[in-house]
Structure formats: structure tokens, C-alpha cells
């Protein structure tokens, strides 16, 4: 920890409190800045999701101030300040509601809101995997180190982009407004995992670097908080594990389908979608092999043996 947060660059507890506690210093300015920037970030994120614009979504990530109260939760846990934890969680909850409502309302002003459900900004945030959780933990560690050191504050915009807090909430609102609650739940799991990762890593870094001792808190008192965070982490990890396994199985089904089509000239697998059924999109100029052969291969791969549905597009690729 001396290497991670050198004493010469370590912020004092008072400095951290001034950065992360909205009741210290110029409280009215802090709150107005938080709500104005969060509202604008929500509008930008929603517009980016609706228009499938990566640049706009990245802009919303940089503007968003949600990481401040989230790290405030970590500071409150590390220093035993229950009031700071409660106030920070209240700000996070209110921020969640604001951005989701903005996304929900925007979906009702778009002529065909369901058309957004297939764009890359939505699809990339509705099926989070364990890879997203690992990245969130690493990003949370970077954010925690950056907020405790004087010399690496310039990495915080990168942390904001990587941790992705507001865009998933915008996707939640857009999906709810488009009558797609399952997709909304997936996006909320992504937000929850990112926020939880930042809280966990923030708490760990702050405790390890001595802020708890500086506040006069005995380290043994962190046990209940760690247990609560561990349970919450397990809860969000369950759907992410399912998504990860689904992704792996879909890849295996795609390979099995390629083998199934090996003797069919010009045939190729376009896509595989695995839910309650395994839908295999195939393009082939002629007749396909018996689907029962592919069903047997899928039964050997996927434990619950989903029914295989083959969508056959008759045609071939033409190139000059």
C-alpha cells in the first residue's frame, strides 16, 4: 500500500471528506453541481443510446458525477461514518431514479422506440458477463487510488469512461419505456456491478491506507460491512455467471453447427442465440442436413438440452 498510495501523495482524511462528503464545505454549490451535471449527463447518455452514438455515450460518462457519492459510501464504511454512508446512498438512489426517468420519458418521444433495442449501445449493456465484473473491480481500484492520491487525479476521466455508470441507467430507462423489462434488468445488473465494485475497492483501499485508523475506527468493525458487500457481490455475480456460460455455450453451438454444415457446399452459420431455445441462423443455397443431428450435438453440450430452431436463409455470398 505504501507503493500504491505513497505517503508523500496521500490525501488527508479532511481532503477526502471535502471531495466526497456533500455536507462539508460549500454544500449548496456541491449539490447544484451534482444535480446539474447528472441531469445533463443523463440527457447526453439517453441521446447517445437512442442514436447509437458511441461518442455521445463517452461524453456522458465523463460528465457524470455519480462516482463521487459512490466513493463516498466507501469512505463512510472505511471510517465508520454511518451518516455519510446513508447520505451517499441516498444521492446514488436519487441519481438512479433521475437518469432512468429521463431514459423512460425519451423512449416515449421516439417514433419507433423498439428499434433502439437492437443497436450496439443497448446490446452491449444488457447481458453483462463476469468479464465486465473483473473489469469493474480493476477500474474501481484505479478510481480508489486516484481519489486518495494528489498526483493521479487526471486519470479520473478514464475511470469514468471505464466504469460506465450513467449509460447503463439510460439503457434501463429506454428499455422500460420500450416494454423490454428483461433487457432493463440486464442493464441494471451492469450498473449495480460497476457501482458495487467501486464501493468495495474504494473501501478496501481506504481501510488499507489507514483512513479508518485516522478516524479512530477499529478495523474489526468492518466485518459486517464486508459481509454485506460480499453478499451483494454474489447476488450480482449470479446473472453475470449465467450470461458468461450462455456466451460460452453459444460459441460451442456455433462450432457444432459449422461441423453439422461441413458437407453442405456454400453453407455458413450467421448467428446463434441461446435462451430457452437455441436459435441457429444459417445461410445455405441448398438443402440442410437433418436438424436432429444438430439437436444431438447441442444436447451433448448444454446441460438443459434446449430445443434447436434452425432459421434457414436460402442464398449465397456473391463477390466479384
Task: Provide the helix percentage.
Answer: 55-70%
Count of discrete alpha- or pi-helical segments spanning 4 or more residues: 13
Strand order of the largest sheet: 1-2-3
Extended strand count: 3
Percent range for β-strand residues:
5-15%
Largest sheet: number of strands, sense, barrel closure = 3 strands, mixed
Give the averaged pLDDT, no decimals.
87
- Terminus-to-terminus distance: 61 Å
Report low-confidence residues grouped into runs of 5 or more.
none
Quaternary state reads single chain
Shape: elongated
Helix and strand content put the structural class at: mainly alpha
Radius of gyration: 24 Å
What series of H and E elements makes up the topology?
A: HHHHHHHHHHHHEEHE
Written overview of the protein:
There is one protein chain. This protein has a three-stranded mixed beta sheet, covered by helices on one side. The protein has 320 residues and is mainly alpha-helical. The chain is built from 13 helices and three strands; from the N terminus they run ααααααααααααββαβ. The longest helix is centred in the C-terminal third of the chain and has 38 residues, at 223-260. The chain has helices at 13-20, 27-51, 54-63, 67-79, 82-107, 120-123, 130-148, 156-163, 166-177, 181-208, 211-214, 223-260, 291-301; strands at 268-274, 277-284, 307-314. It starts with 12 loop residues before the first helix and ends in a 6-residue tail after the last strand.
Amino acid at each position: 500500500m505504501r507503493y500504491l498510495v505513497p505517503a508523500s501523495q496521500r490525501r488527508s482524511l479532511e481532503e477526502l471528506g471535502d471531495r466526497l462528503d456533500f455536507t462539508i464545505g460549500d454544500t449548496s454549490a456541491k449539490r447544484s453541481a451534482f444535480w446539474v451535471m447528472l441531469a445533463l449527463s443523463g440527457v447526453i447518455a439517453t441521446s447517445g443510446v437512442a442514436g447509437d452514438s458511441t461518442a455521445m455515450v463517452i461524453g456522458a460518462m465523463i460528465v457524470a458525477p455519480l462516482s463521487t457519492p459512490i466513493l463516498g459510501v466507501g469512505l463512510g464504511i472505511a471510517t465508520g461514518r454511518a451518516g455519510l454512508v446513508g447520505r451517499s446512498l441516498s444521492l446514488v438512489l436519487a441519481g438512479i431514479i433521475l437518469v432512468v426517468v429521463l431514459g423512460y420519458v425519451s423512449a416515449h418521444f421516439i417514433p419507433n422506440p423498439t428499434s433502439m433495442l437492437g443497436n450496439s449501445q443497448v446490446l452491449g449493456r444488457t447481458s453483462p458477463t463476469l468479464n465486465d465484473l473483473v473489469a469493474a473491480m480493476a477500474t474501481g481500484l484505479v478510481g480508489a487510488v486516484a481519489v486518495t492520491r494528489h498526483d493521479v487525479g487526471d486519470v479520473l476521466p478514464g475511470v469514468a469512461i471505464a466504469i460506465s455508470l450513467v449509460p447503463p441507467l439510460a439503457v434501463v430507462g429506454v428499455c422500460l419505456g420500450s416494454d423490454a423489462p428483461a433487457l432493463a434488468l440486464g442493464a441494471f445488473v451492469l450498473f449495480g456491478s460497476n457501482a458495487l465494485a467501486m464501493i468495495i475497492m474504494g473501501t478496501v483501499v481506504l481501510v488499507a491506507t489507514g483512513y479508518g485508523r485516522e478516524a479512530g475506527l477499529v478495523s474489526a468493525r468492518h466485518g459486517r460491512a464486508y459481509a454485506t458487500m460480499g453478499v451483494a457481490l454474489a447476488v450480482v455475480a449470479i446473472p453475470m455467471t449465467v450470461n458468461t456460460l450462455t456466451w460460452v455455450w453459444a460459441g460451442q453451438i456455433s462450432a457444432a453447427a459449422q461441423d453439422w454444415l461441413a458437407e453442405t457446399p456454400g453453407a455458413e452459420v450467421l448467428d446463434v442465440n441461446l435462451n430457452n431455445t437455441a436459435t441457429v441462423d444459417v445461410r445455405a443455397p441448398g438443402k440442410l442436413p437433418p436438424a436432429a443431428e444438430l439437436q444431438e450435438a447441442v444436447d451433448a453440450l448444454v446441460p438443459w438440452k434446449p430445443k434447436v430452431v434452425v432459421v434457414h436463409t436460402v442464398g449465397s455470398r456473391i463477390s466479384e
